[in-house]
UniProtKB/TrEMBL annotation, chains A, B:
Its cofactor is Zn(2+). It comes from Leucobacter luti. Belongs to the peptidase M20 family. This is N-carbamoyl-L-amino-acid hydrolase. The keyword Metal-binding applies. Transmembrane segments: none annotated. Keywords: Hydrolase, Metal-binding, Zinc. One of its GO terms (molecular function) is hydrolase activity, acting on carbon-nitrogen (but not peptide) bonds, in linear amidines. PANTHER family: ALLANTOATE AMIDOHYDROLASE (PTHR32494:SF5), ALLANTOATE DEIMINASE-RELATED (PTHR32494). Zn(2+) 2 binds at D96, E135, H393. Pfam families: Peptidase_M20.
């Protein structure tokens, strides 16, 4: 063992990582299909439980299926929690989320070694978390497990949420035996979270291009997300006169195109827009659609850009309603300004990177993470490692082994610091 | 009984029509949901079988679930076949197809009375048909039953066709006990079809506007139908740089918009375009779509317009592929020129309308009908009655009782003429 925060576990991490990536692997690709509450998710959780218990952790799951591995170093003390999510999009890379959970486990293994070697430094206990349903592809909304954990989403609402086939979260979690009886932390328990750390692959390519190994995440982009319902009128798609039609799919298509064209109204990189989900009713070859539901997102590093883009989009909505004779309703919307992480956490992560000689830079995250929920409750550190070409939500997502291992070394240092009381001095 | 081709059965038709419209009725609307092979389709078929047998018909179904009611007046002679389809779109009007089957039954009842009263006039037997799956919403393609019947679609292909949930045609027909063991007409049987007649509500509003009660259908519009597959690349819908994206849904949306704009390149009424079905993969809130499948139709009374519109659409396909960095493949396409009905059938229908004092005019059909298949095999007559405001494939589709009854009187006359040898003199 060369150094308690160094490389001793690197080989075993890479071996475990290879095993781990086989759960839900999509044949003949490098990626996975491991949606929340699926059989593959269940199998992976059982394997992960064995890994943690073999290292002396106690594994518990809470009433929304968050999986926790607990290691008590200081009897009765609060916990440093670190983790991410093992669920994936339907056809996705093997790193997104899963790397963060595995890195957290290994960071705890190393931090525990360091703290056992220096018991006086240990102020908190350690816990790894595998949050339930961060992706939100099978069950909406995303970040479900951490949202329930932080009180932002009612438990009953989450448990009753159906997937497209009608199976609820409660049913899916029961089917894989991962529905706990109650909370593991907080009210009704004798456990409390002192601080939180998370590491994730960057879902972008700036760090790779800039030669940065550790991303110190200092803020989330501003965003405005919409669920639109476009309503028209069913008609025979051949026989109805064009002038008589009120085509919901045409209206929806105009919004999809308008969202892309909106980007060109701003400087390059200042606005990202997307529509990833769109459902047509009745979706029949010879019927003009009467209703289309679609999700449309605006994202920007600048809250001002979001507001200007929002105004432009609403003008398009008015024009499409008028010209295509459809009704466009906003069924739901959710907006947030640029959302900072605590500066103290960014500075702690910077200091650890300096000490380890790892290149680092501040980066913003475009995507949301479970840490977005946790940082509103406890001191939080959010870290990135690079992703080749920024490929994300894609079977070919890839991060080099060197970067995976550097991230673990860094997170180990952060967790050890947090467990010694950094960020939580009272 | 006032007249064998007249009004004696009108009251019983209207009563039976009301009963019939309750099968698959959508609560609190005037419409139905009675997709092919559904429980409602099965229940309606059992009821229709009882109606036919109570009038002395023998009911048989063939190996693709076409339901036939046979009435032998001239032992061993070929049959005049008349009918349409009882299946519907997912939320549809109660007249589309179903009126044609019920009108055919009542037309046969009346024609049989007339022929029994004048046995020397009877040259052929009578048969009513309820074609399986004309709509093609649950199982593709449309006009499945008549396509198999006329040898245009292999039986095995049709039986193995899955619905979106994976149930095949064979399984759906077996589940409602409507899968026959073999053919009812043609090879392997001792029955032959001499001629065919069909009546349908117009899926347009020209007859209502022109005050025409009987439409003498003389041709089907030209059409070019496409199934496109737009391929891009999965990416994180927030984080991926806009310039890096290859968004399949954006490409598909541009095609939907282009199809509508194409209409404006031609004179009003010369081109109808539509996209009724569009499916997104992976259809997840935070994933740029990698694949979209969509159906796009061009229809025109003019084959020249179709060819010009096709060329313009292909230019758009090239532009979208280049500008949006997606691949657009034509998975399937099917084109036909303006397709005439036999002039002798149109003239027969005109003469019957004259005799009955019903207003009439030649009309083209934009939509396909089972008669489109049958007219390639035997002398065929295709008729329309008006539809209020041309509302079609819509819960609020409506045709007035007077027009329903006038259509039956007219079809009764046509069927009696056909059974006496009109159009089939050898």
């Amino acid at each position: 063992m060369t150094d308690s925060l160094g490389a001793p576990n690197d080989a075993s991490f890479l071996a475990d990582w290879a095993t781990h990536s086989a759960f839900g692997a999509v044949p003949n690709t490098n990626g996975v299909d491991r949606q929340a509450g699926s059989a593959a998710d269940g199998a992976q959780r059982k394997w992960f439980e064995q890994l943690l218990t073999s290292r002396g952790f106690t594994v518990l799951r809470d009433e929304i299926g968050n999986q926790f591995g607990l290691l008590e170093l200081v009897p009765g003390a609060p916990y440093v929690l670190t983790g991410s999510h093992m669920d994936s999009q339907p056809t996705a890379g093997r790193f997104d989320g899963a790397y963060g959970v595995m890195a957290s486990a290994y960071a705890c293994f190393r931090a525990a070694d360091a703290l056992r070697a220096d018991p006086a430094a240990a102020r908190y206990n350690l816990a790894v978390v595998n949050w339930f349903n961060e992706e939100g592809s099978r069950f909406k909304p995303s970040m479900m497990g951490s949202s329930v954990f932080t009180g932002k989403l009612p438990l009953a609402t989450a448990l009753a949420t159906p997937d497209p086939q009608g199976a609820t979260v409660a049913e899916a979690l029961s089917a894989i035996d991962e529905l706990g009886a109650g909370p593991v932390f907080g009210s009704g328990t004798d456990r409390r979270v002192a601080s939180y750390a998370e590491i994730h692959v960057q879902q972008g390519r700036s760090m790779e291009e800039d030669g940065v190994t550790i991303g110190l995440v200092n803020a989330t982009w501003a965003a405005h997300k919409f669920e639109f319902r476009v309503s028209g009128e069913q008609a025979h798609s051949g026989a109805a006169l064009m002038a008589d039609r009120r085509d919901a799919l045409l209206g929806a298509a105009r919004l999809v195109v308008a969202a892309r064209e909106l980007v060109d109204e701003f400087e390059t990189g200042q606005l990202h827009t997307a529509c990833g989900e769109l459902n047509v009713y009745p979706n029949s070859p010879v019927v003009v659609a009467s209703e289309v539901q679609l999700l449309l997102d605006l994202r920007s590093p600048s809250s001002e850009v979001i507001r200007a883009a929002h105004a432009s989009l609403m003008a398009t909505v008015e024009r499409v309603q008028r010209e295509d004779r459809v009704t466009i309703e906003i069924v739901a919307e959710h907006a947030w300004d640029q959302n900072p992480y605590q500066e103290e956490g960014v500075e702690l992560a910077r200091a650890v990177a300096e000490e380890l000689g790892l290149t680092h830079d501040r980066v913003m995250t475009v995507a949301g993470h479970d840490s977005t929920n946790m940082k509103d409750q406890v001191p939080t550190v959010m870290l990135f490692v690079p992703s080749v070409a920024g490929v994300s939500h894609n079977l070919e997502e890839f991060t080099r082994d060197d970067d995976l291992l550097a991230g673990i070394a860094h997170l180990s240092g952060v967790v050890a610091q947090l467990a010694s009381g950094a960020l939580t001095a009272e």
